[in-house]
Amino acid sequence: MAISVYQHLNIPVVNFALARTDSEENRRRVAKELYEAFKNVGFAYVKNHGVPQEVVDEAFAWNHKFFSMPRTDKDKAPRPSASWHHRGYSSVGREKVSQMIFDEASISAARSVPDVKESYEIGRDDEEASLPNIWPPQDILPGFREFFNKFYEVCYAAELEILRLVALGMGLEEEYFIRFHKNRDNQIRLLHYPPIEESILRQGKAERIAAHTDYGTITMLFQDDVGGLEVESVNEKGRFIPAPYIPNTAVVNIADFLMRWSNDELKSTMHRVKAPPSLAAEGDEAVMTKNRMAKARHSVVYFVGADLEKTVGCVPGCWGPGRPKKYEPVNAMEYIRMRLQATY
């Protein structure tokens, strides 16, 4: 249920606790709240999401440990050159997030304003995984691999509950989306945004993450309290509203694959990471000239994707007379590779 102090953000806060009671009415109530958030905004803050806070805290501790290592050690788990092999470490400037641009000239123009961040990507860690993980050597960061394999499983359990509630909110049977998410073809992303002169960000000479939508089904974001996440206003295209840290919540959003799958019934909303608004008002030249540094920011992201071999058309109930299908059927792997091609 929404918390009134945050209603100006237009991002509801949905509490999953009621969905775990014995009341079917309560479960449907939570499912309706989540569905309406995703239909109208594309985002929700989720409380009691299923990932214990102590596990989230440990994930951030490992995040800090990894990015605090010397560059030479981080480079021992390098991201491969192939754009589709989304695993391992990417140094600052390697990735440039873009939004639905695929021609070389447009991609080159977008890259002229770099994303100032570094990242590390982890997928399922088994012999049948389509993309093998690239781990830092055990002697450099002992315990890192073991923790994130456990974290992956905890997040997967949380993912299943979200997918069941989304299905219920859409009037589908609860297992509808689960059937397309059995292989755990998901991704953990650790992110570090190093300190940077705030004026550089405000003048558009660099970005932390450019405005974009996500690629897959849904995204769970665990952010620190530094700030900087912004979500595009539902009512005013091009206007971005801060989405600050709310303790004990995950920011959950719809991604492009599910928007397409639902025939645009669910909204994949543009978002970005900028300089935190608390440091200075936009255009505050007095502050901008002081070379004030935007603080380092860390986040942990769990991207949910459909099983890579699955091809999807349109969710039942999302099309019919007077409401034609907007998209051709699409294969999950082909779609993700197309989007990654423009990013690296």
From TrEMBL:
Official protein name in the record: Fe2OG dioxygenase domain-containing protein
Gene Ontology MF terms in the entry: metal ion binding; oxidoreductase activity
InterPro entries: DIOX_N, IPNS-like_FE2OG_OXY, IPNS-like_sf, Iron_ascorbate_oxido_reductase, Oxoglu/Fe-dep_dioxygenase_dom
Family: Belongs to the iron/ascorbate-dependent oxidoreductase family.
GO biological process, one term: small molecule biosynthetic process
Residue span(s) of domain Fe2OG dioxygenase: 184-306
UniProt KW keywords: Iron, Metal-binding, Oxidoreductase
Source organism superkingdom: Eukaryota
SUPFAM superfamilies: Clavaminate synthase-like
Annotated coiled-coil segments of the chain: none
Database matches in Gene3D superfamilies: B-lactam Antibiotic, Isopenicillin N Synthase, Chain
